[in-house]
Design brief:
Helix content: over 70%
Number of helices: 3
Shape: globular
Structural class: mainly alpha
Oligomer: single chain
Number of strands: 0
Distance between the termini: 39 Å
Strand content: under 5%
Radius of gyration: 14 Å
Length: about 80
């Protein structure tokens, strides 16, 4: 079970993190690190959904994580080598 003292701060910072990561990906700022941050955030969300047994949410989160992984693979294979 997730400690309750972590839930409230995480719930406040989650939309800000999602917005920042999405914005960084859209404008192409530090794309590799934004993808790493997105995958880390998705891992935390999947862990939280598993811990409360919210199986319906996990499907959408895994689809998003797969999409981010595909972007990371594409970026590492064809992306800018200067970054």
């Amino acid at each position: 079970m997730i400690p309750t003292f972590l839930l409230m701060p995480f719930s406040y910072i989650l939309p800000i993190l999602e917005f920042m990561i999405g914005l960084w990906l859209l404008i192409g700022y530090q794309s590799r690190w934004a993808l790493y941050a997105g995958l880390t955030l998705m891992s935390v969300l999947i862990f939280g959904s598993c811990s409360i047994e919210n199986w319906n949410a996990i499907e959408a989160q895994l689809i998003h994580a797969t999409y981010l992984f595909g972007l990371l693979w594409f970026f590492q294979k064809y992306g800018d080598k200067a970054e």
